Amino acid sequence: MERETVSRNFIEQIIDTDLAEGKYETICTRFPPEPNGYLHIGHAKSILLNYGIAKKYGGRFNLRFDDTNPTKEKTEFVDSILADVKWLGADFEDRLFFASNYFEQMYEAAVKLIKKGKAFVCDLSAEEIREYRGTLTEPGKESPYRNRSVEENLALFENMKNGMYEDGAKVLRAKIDMASPNINMRDPVIYRVAHMTHHNTGDTWCIYPMYDFAHPIEDAIEGVTHSICTLEFEDHRPLYDWVVREVGYEHPPKQIEFAKLYLTNVVTGKRYIKKLVEQGIVDGWDDPRLVTIAALKRRGFTPESIQMFVDLCGISKSQSSVDYAMLEYCIREDLKLKRPRMMAVLDPVKLVIDNYPENEMEYLDVEMNLENPELGMRKVPFGRELYIDREDFMENPPKKYFRLFPENEVRLMGAYFVKCVGFEKDADGNVTEIHCTYDPETKCGTGFTGRKVKGTIHWVAAVTAIRATVRLYENIIDESKGVYNEDGSLNLNPSSLTVLNNCLLEPAFVDAKLIEKPSHSVPAAQTGADASAAPETDCYARAYDSFQFVRQGYFCVDAKDSRPDALVFNRIVSLKSSFRLPKPE
User: Fold this and answer.
1) Where does residue 233 fall: left (phi above 0), alpha (psi -120 to 50 degrees), or beta otherwise?
2) Please, which contacts does 520-528 make with residues 24 or more away whose CB atoms are closer than 8 Å?
3) What order do you get walking across the sheet with 546-549 strand by strand?
4) From CA 147, how far away is CA 50, in angstroms rounded?
5) DSSP output for 35-80
């Protein structure tokens, strides 16, 4: 029997070797965000990678907040990160940790380094430390405070802890090598004074550890075996290893770096997103035009689509960019067989079937999804007065326009053939009403074969139509100009959001399990029809429910602004794209 070939990325190959050599008995990974903003699509790659490895090897996955910088961290960001990780399905079980819970152990580790002669208190300012550090081609200079005695350093560090110095007056530095070719090893700062209230520890501490010192200690305390991070930390790995070695951890974690996930023409930097939020250009960190995880969720992306996207991107040591169209491809693939295909008219114009009986309503059987019969059927009301999309009628159409125009016949989707026999305009020349006749012999599903039509258009019955607001999104960046201007500002797309306030939907646009009893049908005064003939709708959509609006795209109920009596839909993605997966070699 031929053995199956198992494809493993380079991280899994390293783990396989470590397990085979007995370096670790079980695997433990972690996702360690700093709570200074909302997570974005790049973080999703790290979350799913770390969780996926732990799950694959039957190990543990930790969620730990690297909350060592109180100047930028907020409880709001902690809560948002927790929600994002859970939504993505990365189960950390009961292993939720905070770096701030280890502050006492970090302090003791720093004291240990001082006693070993491996750390000293330095009075140089931040600017002076930069000047002394040297360059990539020139070694640094030793601080004049580098050779303080152990006793003096212990006393000064204790005074730092007790709040006796102002911010910036003193720092604790590791004593390593000012001539090292790796600038990160040139006596890096490992503690600084910061009289700030911490979101978790309050005012207990006025000194805080630096990330490069805290992070390896956190990993070691938690028993993390493989500290997986992005490539910008590769040059920090010698310092990571130095800390765990000098502090004396018996089973040091192994740091492994992989390439970040970059999306073309997309804003992921927290500084830029924060500015967009603060300037009111977007309506929050979860604005659907952003690629924060909260924004993708609100727009209608699913955890499954993001997992698919991460899998397609792969794991590599080489930096590269991925087209945003690949992410759109993944959500289309995920939704196309799962979600019902409903009729929605985004720019309505009335259509009257002159020879259809007045005050009569029939209910047509229409499939939920032609590609997935298991979703079943739904009843769609049909009557004399309907609404169609304005773009589906033209008074003077060009060639190869197969939709509705004078004397032309089309099929109303799931219903009958109708032929345009006239139309009305307002004083400005806008079409306000289209008149048609229908052929009762052409009802969909009856097997009619008498003649064919080239066009099929969607519609909603006027008397039962549900009014909704629809938001159409484009990239918040003007792709023709690139992401950034020369001064570092963003090239914003002024047309990134279009709001349509008078859209009309068929009433049964959710499946039966979502039954509720709102009263949000369009009033008769708005439809021009007899409201008494309309059955009360029994369905409405919950936040995040998604649907395909036929011929329009995939849409999601907005979680922030929708109510049962005022639905708001976000367009997730259009129906078609030029993106294609590369053929396997």
Assistant:
1) alpha
2) 520/466, 520/467, 520/564, 520/565, 520/566, 520/567, 521/463, 521/464, 521/465, 521/466, 522/462, 522/465, 522/466, 522/467, 524/463, 526/467, 527/385, 527/462, 527/463, 527/465, 528/350, 528/385, 528/462
3) 341-342, 546-549, 553-557, 567-573, 466-473, 497-505, 344-345
4) 42
5) SSS--BHHHHHHHHHHHHHHHHTT-EEEEEE----TTT--HHHHHH
Are the C-beta atoms of residues 374 and 340 closer than 8 Å to each other? no
CA distance 555 to 471: 9
**pLDDT per residue as tens, the chain (585 positions):** 444 445 578 999 999 999 999 999 999 999 999 999 999 999 999 999 999 999 999 999 999 999 999 988 999 999 999 999 999 999 999 999 999 999 999 999 999 999 999 999 999 999 999 999 999 999 999 999 999 999 999 999 999 999 999 999 999 999 999 999 999 999 999 999 999 999 999 999 999 999 999 999 999 999 999 999 999 999 999 999 999 999 999 889 999 999 998 888 888 888 899 999 999 999 999 999 999 999 999 999 999 999 999 999 999 998 888 999 999 999 999 999 999 999 999 999 999 999 999 989 999 999 999 999 999 998 999 999 999 999 999 999 999 999 999 999 999 999 999 999 999 999 999 999 999 999 999 999 888 888 899 999 999 999 999 899 999 999 999 888 878 887 878 889 999 999 999 999 998 754 433 334 334 334 333 333 333 333 343 444 678 889 999 999 999 999 998 877 788 999 999 998 766 666 655
- Side chain identity at 436, as an amino acid letter? C
**φ, ψ dihedrals at 506, nearest 5°:** -65, 155
Phi and psi torsions of 465, nearest 5°: -65, 145
CA distance 554 to 92: 32
| List of residues 6+ apart from 23 with CB closer than 8 A | 254
Both tokens of residue 100? 């701030």
**Strand 377-383 vs strand 344-345: parallel, antiparallel, or unpaired?**
unpaired
- Separation between Cα atoms, residue 533 and residue 528, nearest integer Å: 12
**303-313 vs 75-88: helix crossing angle, rounded to 10:** 80
Q: How many CA atoms lie within 13 A of 221 on its CB side?
A: 20
Mention every residue, 6+ apart, whose C-beta is less than 8 A from residue 251. 24, 220, 223, 225
Whole-angstrom distance, CA of residue 330 vs CA of residue 336: 10
pTM of the model: 0.89
CA–CA distances in Å: residue 77 to residues 34, 39, 84, 199? 9, 9, 10, 11
232: which residues sit within 8 A by CB, 6+ positions away? 260
Whole-number Å distance between alpha carbons of 155 and 162:
10
